[in-house]
Amino acid sequence: MKTAAVAPFFFLPSTLATTIYLAGDSTMANLGGGSGTNGWGQYVAQYVSATVVNDAVAGRSARSYTREGRFENIAEVVTSGDYVVIEFGHNDGGSLSTDNGRTDCSGTGAEVCYSVYDGVNETVLTFPAYLENASKLFTAKGANVIISSQTPDNPWETGTFSYTPTRFVGYAELAAEVAGVGYVDHGAYVAAIYETLGNATVNSFYQIDHTHTSPAGAEVVAEAFFKAVVCTGASLNNVLTTTSFEGTCL
């Protein structure tokens, strides 16, 4: 007696095999909402057909994130085709004369500074250099890197809309250009949406200070990031489940 032929089984890889890693500070991190705030990274998963790993950590700068080995930790697990979004700037300013362990060396290239932090001699790099070095770690593994400019502080804080990008916005764009990776001006897209939403709504997002957003505000900030991705044609478009986000392309 003949048995029916069984069709061969082929495994079709799922987009969910792709992972998006987020590297940033408290404006991106999972803050749990306990203080009435949260980072925008917690609202990424609902818009993508990929696994999201939010490795952002409150209080970190590009320098301290590097010193703590956090970029290297991501590089150890990232695989070809994954994505890494890097966004810093809020904690990177200051002076090395009273080193807080976060301040970067002044400059935009290969300049170095020397400091003693926590009793250890440290060679301090520039902001772009930290991002460029991190990008190289990931692209060497075949990952797609997007450097994102920092989110703005509340531009309606004075009652009149005002947005002036910090120097770290330009530094982020420069780093992306030098490293040959994607760039989105997240700050500009957030500011554009905030201007449209108006004073009362935006002020309601900032309940403890002018930097950290409520969960509702963080979701708006996440959507602004994806609007920038759609408008700039960044590689992350490949895993978006929608391209319909508020606002216009800048």
TrEMBL record:
One of its GO terms (molecular function) is hydrolase activity, acting on ester bonds. Residues 1-17 form the signal peptide. InterPro entries: GDSL, RhgT-like, SGNH_hydro_sf. It comes from the Eukaryota. Keywords: Hydrolase, Signal. The keyword Oxidoreductase does not apply. Pfam families: Lipase_GDSL. Transmembrane segments: none annotated. Belongs to the 'GDSL' lipolytic enzyme family. This is Rhamnogalacturonan acetylesterase. It comes from Aspergillus saccharolyticus JOP 1030-1. The lineage of its organism: Eukaryota, Fungi, Dikarya, Ascomycota, Pezizomycotina.
